[in-house]
Specification:
By secondary structure, this protein is an alpha/beta fold. It has a single domain, classed as 3-Layer(aba) Sandwich (Rossmann fold), CATH 3.40.50.300. The protein is built from 9 helices and 5 strands. Helix 3 packs across helix 5 and helix 4 crosses helix 8. Bound molecules: adenosine-5'-diphosphate (ADP) and magnesium ion.
């Protein structure tokens, strides 16, 4: 399946409030200016069915959602998005940007919730048809800054567009987010050829430049 694709698959990862969504939109604009066709997608969601599942996952009222249900719902969204949206776009030669992908499940459910990474990788094999990101940008930031940013954003979003906050995950204890951040950095250290760590603490423009530098290297290699 994946060998017929011509496009490039780039994912954004990082804890809530690190700047993923902001940076993905900026990268998309920059790539479009450079003449590339770009599909922006996000998790959980990305398709009409995925958006319905997203409501269950992020509803702060669903505190009783058990860790296994949560894991399977994330992969239900992902399977739908891979088949319906991501693979078709890659076959058409587009650059696909995704705000979160399997790495999020590895660190949040595998490590954060303690389900183990093996079960996450097994579900990935079932749901993703061999699709792996060509490049993953890990926007790394300290917990204090990310929480301050996420809370400021969510205050605005609760009035405007509730669907785009990460409410239920936000409500986790600080210790959970620390473990997730650490797991992300370990994942990056284990796969340096795929995962580039970007320092998310600078202003939006300087983070954007760091993202662009990483993507330009990859574009240079694949789109000569
Ligand atoms: N580099 C930055 N400096 C300051 N504020 C930022 C920066 N990047 C993003 N923000 C703001 O912080 C909040 C969280 O950013 P967002 O892109 O939504 O993060 P994420 O998608 O990783 O949760 C938003 O309100 C955004 O405008
Ligand atoms: Mg976001």
């Amino acid at each position: 399946m994946t060998e017929t694709r011509r496009g490039l698959f780039i994912t954004f990862e990082g804890i809530d409030g690190s700047g993923k969504t902001t940076q993905m939109h900026r990268l998309a604009a920059r790539l479009r200016e450079a003449g590339h066709e770009v599909l922006e997608t996000y998790e959980p969601g990305g398709t009409p069915i995925g958006v319905q599942v997203r409501r269950i996952l992020l509803d702060a009222a669903n505190q009783e959602l058990c860790a296994t249900s949560e894991l399977l719902l994330y992969f239900a969204c992902r399977a739908q998005n891979v088949v319906q949206s991501i693979l078709p776009a890659l076959r058409e030669g587009k650059i696909v940007l995704s705000d979160r992908f399997t790495d999020s499940t590895l660190v949040y459910q595998g490590v954060g919730r303690g389900l183990g990474t093996e079960v996450v990788l097994a579900l990935d094999r079932i749901c993703c048809q061999g699709l792996r990101p060509d490049l993953t940008l890990l926007v790394d930031i300290d917990l204090e800054t990310s929480l301050a940013r996420a809370h400021a954003r969510n205050r605005t979003l609760r009035q405007a567009d509730h669907a785009f906050s990460e409410t239920r995950m936000d409500d986790q204890a600080a210790d959970f987010h620390q473990r997730v951040r650490k797991a992300y950095l370990e994942l990056a250290a284990g796969e340096p050829q795929r995962v580039t760590v970007v320092d998310g603490r600078g202003d939006v423009a300087s983070v954007e430049q760091a993202v662009w530098n990483a993507v330009a290297v990859r574009l240079g290699k694949l789109h000569v």
